[in-house]
């Protein structure tokens, strides 16, 4: 199965891990399994120069350490380098002249296969450098002017000797290189390390041959004598090992996922070798996933055959040209990246298990041909210029990194000096096990090129890579889960204490909701209407101050906690004949609905005189006017049904009698019609409120039920309905007291005495309705 991904960053997420990327999670982990580079990889000798491929300090001396207790050099202590270093005559394997030996670790590692007599296999260094001398081609005869392998780890160029981790010559086949380079790489990759192989050398020196082999050999079986390069051998071994592992994973669930990309850097532009139409791609730096190329094709693969196809496709798309050293010279640097993601868990377990991610990078550089006498064209010159420039930047990078461990200075590393150095950020000096193959021609007539290559390899050995196993274990996941839980708890505590997020909208909203809940409790307590004693003879007067105080209290309750919910005076609707619809402008009714209500009220009801309007207007706190709907109601026997209680605040308030204008009292003859009308208005309002309520509920912005409030209103409506049916015959009026809220039948009020001291029945009910609606509105806001 192949899946093309256009976003490398996103595809770093493992499918079987869902959205959890190993590399991402690793950034969260308190620890990583880290393999510090062995001290043995550090040379005791400072790099000779910052210049690219300049010779060592003294190529004719060999270093040895004062504390060396063996014939081989031992690991240096960097801080004691200067005093511990001594010079001595070159060892016997330097046949002609003493030469510059590379760092001691090469010799300190015991390798039975090299006949060093070691017992334990050598540790695999973080940075490994091998040299390979290409065989002489047909017709080539250089006589004595050849580069010679003088030991498994040393070679000579003229009178100079260089030591590396391994040296291969014409007698070494691809399999030999694979055993030394490829096999450890596969093991490291399966262990969870990032790994890189970089082939470096002059044009025609055998870089491409070593890595990929001839195209014809790509599909061959990797027989030991085959010409197949080490990369296809690596993939064959990788899939073979994984198959073996899966076959032996009884009781375990073992999943793998692979994906591959292939790019080239040509004339300092990145092109996609798997989709040659994609040119000039950009390098991106992701803090968690590292460097990646935007929009680069990544193909998922499941088998060695899949990879082979990708390799053939990519290599055939690479730019090639002719040089004096190679008729099919690579004119671009290419980078093949292969990502392995694995996840292992016990089959019976529901736990996470463990997950690993590793990245294999194969970098085949374009070679320089400085000996070219004639360029075949301007294009060729341009290519050479870019190749030379990028290789020069690479040399500078290597010099900088090689110097850093010894000087202790954290110099700015010039990774971004070129596309190549930028892309190699992980491989060189980063989280990767690096192997550099220094490819050299056997002809030493141009020993300048050979020396450059070998000195490059020398310097690479100074670089300190810090590869880590990219693994997430069960413990890591548990640790992260604990951390998340703790953080959540801390957050909740901080939120509840109000110490966090005061400026955060979410927390503000939460505080508002809390305040609203408090408000709701407060209003419920204060507006549960007192029991109406229908039998009481006590005349209840409505005190204007009481009304004002009630309104103020309601306003305070609302405005203290929710300023937004304060209402504007402009929207006061004060219908005639004690019918007033006060509705929340913003939340309860739309302005159109309000206007409709008002219009109906004004059309059907007699308007109060200007004076009385003003009186009533004054009696209501201006700030709350728009928030309450006042409907004409009549006293009903049902009013005794609700269990009413007095507001604690009102109870303590000084109560005064108030005289309401009799204009609020309407003729009983008008009551039925008007009350019916207003009942309808009320019902309409209620319906609207229910509509609004359901809208709010469905919007989920204001969670919380208002059923009790709706029930109260419904009950009020029933009372009004009932009163409609009975008010005309009774012709009664009531007084309204905030202390007892006792509604008492009263004789019909003479129109002439319209300035009666007691509030008429309709007005009393009307006031009750005010309270009810105010509660409704504020509660609706609060929920
Ligand atoms: N170890 C080897 N055994 C046999 N032939 C080799 C070996 N190394 C290189 N060659 C041959 O030498 C020639 C040049 O090799 P190759 O193309 O790999 O060089 P290169 O370093 O990649 O050159 P360039 O940088 O110009 O691309 C090829 O024909 C290749 O087959």
Automatic annotation (TrEMBL):
SMART domains the record matches: KISc
Entry superkingdom: Eukaryota
Domain Kinesin motor: residue ranges: 126-463
Gene3D superfamilies found in the cross-reference section: Kinesin motor domain (3.40.850.10)
Location of region: Disordered: 1-127
UniProt KW keywords: ATP-binding, Coiled coil, Microtubule, Motor protein, Nucleotide-binding
GO terms (BP aspect): male meiosis cytokinesis; microgametogenesis; microtubule-based movement; phragmoplast microtubule organization
SUPFAM superfamilies, alphabetized: P-loop containing nucleoside triphosphate hydrolases
Biased composition (Polar residues): 1-53
Coiled coil: 470-497
GO MF annotations in UniProt: ATP binding; microtubule binding; microtubule motor activity
Keyword Repeat appears in the UniProt entry: no
Positions with a binding annotation for ATP: 201-208
Cellular-component GO terms for this entry: microtubule; phragmoplast
UniProt similarity note: Belongs to the TRAFAC class myosin-kinesin ATPase superfamily. Kinesin family. KIN-12 subfamily.
PANTHER family per UniProt: KINESIN-LIKE PROTEIN, KINESIN-LIKE PROTEIN KIN-12D
Protein's UniProt name: Kinesin-like protein KIN-12F
């Amino acid at each position: 199965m192949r899946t093309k991904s256009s976003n490398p960053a996103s595809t770093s997420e493992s499918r079987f891990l869902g959205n959890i990327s190993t590399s991402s999670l690793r950034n969260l982990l308190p620890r990583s399994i880290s393999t510090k580079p062995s001290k043995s990889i550090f040379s005791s000798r400072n790099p000779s120069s910052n210049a690219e491929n300049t010779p060592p300090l003294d190529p004719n001396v060999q270093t040895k350490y004062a504390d060396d207790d063996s014939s081989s050099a031992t690991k240096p202590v960097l801080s004691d380098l200067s005093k511990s270093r001594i010079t001595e005559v070159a060892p016997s394997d330097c046949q002609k002249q003493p030469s510059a030996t590379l760092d001691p670790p090469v010799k300190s590692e015991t390798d039975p296969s090299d006949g060093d007599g070691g017992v334990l296999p050598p540790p695999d260094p973080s940075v490994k450098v091998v040299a390979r001398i290409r065989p002489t081609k047909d017709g080539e005869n250089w006589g004595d002017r050849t580069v010679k392998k003088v030991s498994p780890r040393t070679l000579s160029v003229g009178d100079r000797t260089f030591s590396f981790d391994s040296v291969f010559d014409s007698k070494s086949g691809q399999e030999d290189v694979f055993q030394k380079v490829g096999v450890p790489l596969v093991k490291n990759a399966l262990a969870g390390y990032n790994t890189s192989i970089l082939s470096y050398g002059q044009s025609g020196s055998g870089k491409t041959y070593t890595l990929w082999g001839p195209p014809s050999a790509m599909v061959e079986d990797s027989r030991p004598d085959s010409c197949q390069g080490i990369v296809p051998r690596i993939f064959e071994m990788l899939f073979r090992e994984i198959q073996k592992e899966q076959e032996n994973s009884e009781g375990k669930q073992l999943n793998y996922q692979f994906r591959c990309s292939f790019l080239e850097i040509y004339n300092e532009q990145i092109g996609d070798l798997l989709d040659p139409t994609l040119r000039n791609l950009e390098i991106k730096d992701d803090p968690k996933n590292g460097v990646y190329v935007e929009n680069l094709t990544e193909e998922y693969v499941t088998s060695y055959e899949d990879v082979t196809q990708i390799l053939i496709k990519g290599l055939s798309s690479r730019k090639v040209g002719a040089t004096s050293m190679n008729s099919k010279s690579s004119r671009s640097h290419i980078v093949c990246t292969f990502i392995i993601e694995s996840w292992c868990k016990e089959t019976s377990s529901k736990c996470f298990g463990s997950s690993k991610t590793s990245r294999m990078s194969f970098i085949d550089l374009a070679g320089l041909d400085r000996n070219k006498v004639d360029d075949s064209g301007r294009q060729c010159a341009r290519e050479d210029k870019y190749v030379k420039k990028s290789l020069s930047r690479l040399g500078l990078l290597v010099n900088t990194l090689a110097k850093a461990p010894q000087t202790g200075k954290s110099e700015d590393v010039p990774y971004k000096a070129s596309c190549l150095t930028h892309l190699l950020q992980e491989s060189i000096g980063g989280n990767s096990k690096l192997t550099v193959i220094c490819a050299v021609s056997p002809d030493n007539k141009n020993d300048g090129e050979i020396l450059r290559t070998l000195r490059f390899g020398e310097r690479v050995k100074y670089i300190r890579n810090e590869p880590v196993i990219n693994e997430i274990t069960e413990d890591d996941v548990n640790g992260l889960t604990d951390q998340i839980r703790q953080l959540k708890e801390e957050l909740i505590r901080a939120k509840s204490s109000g110490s966090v997020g005061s400026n955060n909208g979410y927390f503000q909203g939460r505080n508002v909701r809390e305040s609203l809940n408090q408000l709701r409790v407060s209003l419920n307590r204060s507006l549960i209407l007192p029991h109406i004693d229908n039998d009481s003879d006590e005349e209840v007067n409505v005190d204007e101050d009481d009304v004002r105080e009630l309104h103020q209290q309601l306003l305070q309750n609302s405005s203290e906690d929710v300023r937004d919910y304060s209402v504007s005076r402009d929207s006061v609707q004060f219908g005639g004949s004690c019918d007033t619809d006060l509705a929340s402008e913003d939340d309860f009714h739309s302005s159109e609905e309000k206007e409709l209500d008002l219009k109906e009220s004004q059309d059907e009801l007699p308007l109060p005189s200007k004076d009385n309007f003003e009186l009533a207007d004054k009696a209501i706190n201006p700030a709350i006017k728009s928030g309450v709907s006042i409907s004409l109601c009549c006293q009903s026997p049902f009013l005794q049904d609700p269990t009413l209680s007095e507001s604690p605040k009102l109870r303590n308030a000084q109560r005064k009698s108030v005289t309401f204008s009799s204009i609020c009292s309407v003729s009983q003859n008008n009551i039925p019609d008007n009350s019916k009308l207003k009942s309808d208005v009320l019902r309409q309002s209620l319906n609207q409120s229910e509509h609004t309520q359901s809208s709010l509920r469905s919007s989920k912005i204001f969670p919380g039920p208002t059923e009790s409030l709706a029930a109260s209103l419904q009950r009020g409506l029933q009372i009004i309905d009932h009163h409609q049916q009975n008010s005309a015959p009774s012709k009664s009026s009531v007084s309204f007291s905030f202390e007892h809220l006792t509604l008492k039948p009263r004789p019909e009020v003479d129109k002439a005495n319209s300035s009666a001291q007691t509030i008429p029945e309709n007005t009393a009910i009307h006031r009750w309705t005010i309270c009810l609606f105010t509660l409704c509105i504020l509660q609706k806001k609060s929920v």
